[in-house]
Design a protein that fits this description.
By secondary structure, the chain is of the alpha/beta class. It contains six helices and 17 strands. The chain folds into two domains: 181 residues, 3-Layer(bba) Sandwich (FAD/NAD(P)-binding domain), CATH 3.50.50; 113 residues, FAD/NAD(P)-binding domain (3-Layer(bba) Sandwich), CATH 3.50.50.60. Helix 1 packs parallel to helix 2, helix 1 packs parallel to helix 6 and helix 4 packs parallel to helix 5. The structure holds NADP nicotinamide-adenine-dinucleotide phosphate. The site of NADP nicotinamide-adenine-dinucleotide phosphate (NAP) has 18 residues, from helix 4.
Length: 317
């Protein structure tokens, strides 16, 4: 295939779609490639109340559908294909899927990150129905209810504290003893002082139960092997189970090519430039602190504008 795109965006979550939109608006010949379905993590979110301009019924899927429509309206092409290998070092970047070869003057990597799952029975079925991986997105649904948080890192403890704004009680279940908590001392200490928080150490999830909505969680104490069940208060009907056991960046295919931090996130500067000229990064796969839809779309816009400037300077001079 001899066609050379101005820009290929890999990944069609909010970061990739924002990049595609900005590129198409700037009259770039842009292709967005997505291996699964458009939307990324946001499509597992019931309500996106924290994205500016999103209205009451703005669910993850409807917000993504609008982003896709807007992209296409301005001429961005979106195709379903999975990139498996590439040559990014030459001026014209080559991206290969199992069946196709794509060429582009610039590339934006927006492949995202996914929350690590526990893979406990029932977890998948009840995701979005009581089980959540995003406190900012879903915490408000559990006003005055009980919430269980899983994990012992900074994210779990900080998000547990955030969730006390809504919940009447937040339990933090950590698989090891108190002395192994990874969270920073200052963060831990604030959590210990918080009267709404109760820790459950040496505790792992065995099963997540509920008929269409989360009703109970079965735990095992790893020291005694004793099983016990936390059941939602009858009046509440449900409770929250928030899982924060780390994230997995979707960056394996770029290993050895793009510079990454120790956790496998791609390093980009404030212009979203990577270590390879003409290759930019945007969204949750980028090494950074805050991962939200609004920060992903912001990255995408910046990466796209910088890619346009790069292509103009390099190829149109
Ligand atoms: P993390 O530091 O990797 O912690 C993950 C936690 O989940 C650990 O407590 C781990 O337990 C537990 N875990 C992992 N797999 C599990 C499983 N299958 N079942 C049960 N528990 C499991 O992840 P994170 O908290 O998301 O933090 C990621 C990075 O962002 C860290 O570098 C962190 O410092 C940083 N961060 C910083 C801030 C801040 O500075 N304010 C805020 C958030 C995040 P073990 O301890 O037993 O391994």
């Amino acid at each position: 295939m001899d066609k050379v795109y101005d820009l290929i965006v890999i990944g069609a979550g909010p970061g990739g779609l924002a990049a595609g939109l900005y590129a198409a608006r700037a009259s770039m010949d842009v292709l967005i490639l997505e291996k699964a379905k458009t939307g990324g993590q946001i499509v597992i979110t019931d309500e996106v109340a924290n994205y500016p301009g999103s209205i009451e019924d703005a669910t993850g899927p409807t917000l993504v559908a609008r982003m896709v429509e807007q992209c296409k309206e301005f001429g961005a092409k979106i195709e379903s294909d999975e990139i498996v290998s590439m040559d990014l070092d030459s001026d014209i970047k080559i991206l290969n899927s199992n069946n196709n070869t794509y060429k582009a003057k610039s590339v934006i990597v927006a492949t995202g990150a996914s929350p690590r799952k526990l893979n406990a029975p029932g977890e998948k079925e009840l995701t979005g129905k009581g089980v959540s991986y995003c406190a900012t997105c879903d915490g408000a649904f559990f006003e005055d209810m009980e919430i269980i948080v899983i994990g012992g890192g900074d994210t779990a403890i900080e998000e547990a504290m955030f969730l006390t704004k809504f919940a009447r009680k937040v339990y933090i279940a950590y698989r090891k003893g108190e002395e192994y908590l990874r969270a920073a001392k200052s963060i831990k200490e604030r959590a210990f002082r918080n009267k709404k928080i109760e820790f459950m150490f040496n505790t792992v999830v065995e099963e997540v139960k509920g008929d269409g909505i989360l009703e109970s969680v079965v735990f095992k104490n790893t020291q005694t092997n004793e099983l016990f069940e936390k059941v939602a208060d009858e009046e509440d009907g449900t409770m929250g189970l928030f899982i924060f056991v780390g994230y997995i960046p979707q960056t394996d295919i770029f290993k050895g090519k793009l510079d990454m931090d120790d956790s496998g996130y791609i390093i980009g500067d404030e212009d979203m430039k990577t270590n390879i000229e003409g290759v930019f990064v945007a969204g949750d796969c980028r090494s950074k602190k805050i991962r939200q839809v609004v920060t992903a779309t912001s990255d995408g816009a910046i990466a796209s504008i910088m890619a346009e400037k790069y292509v103009d300077a390099k190829f149109e001079a």
